[in-house]
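can u do me a favor
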């Protein structure tokens, strides 16, 4: 899978995308990350990429032209078969695991990182999709682009060690992930739950599903909707019954 990232600050990507799992995936050729400096597509003498806003007001606005030229150049490079063009933007659709999965199915994705106080509105017409990574405003689209590359790349087969490595992730099955433990068996008065030491596969599976359900119920109850099996409903009813019983005891 190839990412073409249009940015004014390609140097920001050194580190996050060259180390650890994503760095290894790039070394193995599982993901290609091309950083394209938008400034290279500025046609004016001083290679500027921003200007003052029409109508007045403070700040600078990123001009449309270099971005259009950069995307045109990509279209030429890929003989017109460009993947989706995704604009990083706080006004976009909120990025989530299902969007990551959808993008992981593409062969090519173009990410546009805005900067300065805003973008010329006409840049939006270039994009197939506008994506926000959350309801807060960052100084530019570079960090959001890195978040997207990371979340998408780890879903590409071969990027994580285990083929089933992402199946139990939080959000993968619509629920938060169950608790995980490793050695030692007890640490500072916190023992590993007995069931995980039992070697009893079916019981471990049941325990993990229940823990995922309870954790999701407590932390993110809105995720439960649409992600429950009949067994899960029974489990949740049982948990509610036990909770009510405990309340009676306390009262
Ligand atoms: N650019 C600035 N803030 C952003 C956000 N939250 N998501 C995507 N792009 C952004």
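np, heres the sequence
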């Amino acid at each position: 899978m190839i990412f073409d990232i249009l940015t004014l600050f390609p140097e920001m990507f050194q580190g996050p995308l060259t180390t650890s799992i994503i760095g290894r995936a790039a070394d193995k050729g599982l993901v290609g990350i091309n950083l394209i400096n938008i400034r290279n597509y500025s046609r004016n003498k001083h290679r500027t990429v921003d200007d003052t806003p029409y109508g007045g007001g403070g700040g600078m606005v990123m001009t449309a032209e270099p971005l259009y030229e950069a995307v045109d150049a990509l279209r030429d490079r890929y003989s017109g078969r460009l993947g989706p063009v995704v604009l990083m933007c706080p006004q976009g659709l909120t990025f989530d695991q299902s969007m990551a999965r959808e993008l992981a199915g593409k062969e090519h994705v173009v990410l546009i990182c805005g900067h300065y106080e805003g973008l010329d509105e006409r840049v939006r017409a270039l994009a197939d999709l506008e994506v926000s990574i959350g309801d807060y405003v960052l100084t530019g689209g570079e960090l959001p682009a890195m978040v997207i590359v990371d979340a998408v790349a780890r879903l590409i087969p071969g990027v994580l060690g285990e083929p089933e490595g992402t199946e139990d992730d939080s959000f993968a099955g619509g629920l938060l992930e169950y608790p995980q433990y490793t050695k030692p068996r007890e640490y500072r008065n916190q023992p590993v739950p007995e069931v995980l030491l039992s070697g009893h596969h079916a019981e471990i599976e049941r325990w993990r599903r229940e823990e995922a359900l309870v954790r999701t119920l407590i932390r993110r109850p809105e995720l439960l909707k649409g992600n429950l099996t009949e067994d899960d409903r029974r489990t949740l009813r049982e948990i509610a019954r036990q909770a009510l019983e405990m309340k009676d005891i306390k009262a």
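The pocket of adenine is lined by residues 88-90, 132-134, 136-138, 141, 144 (CB under 6 Å). hope that helps!!
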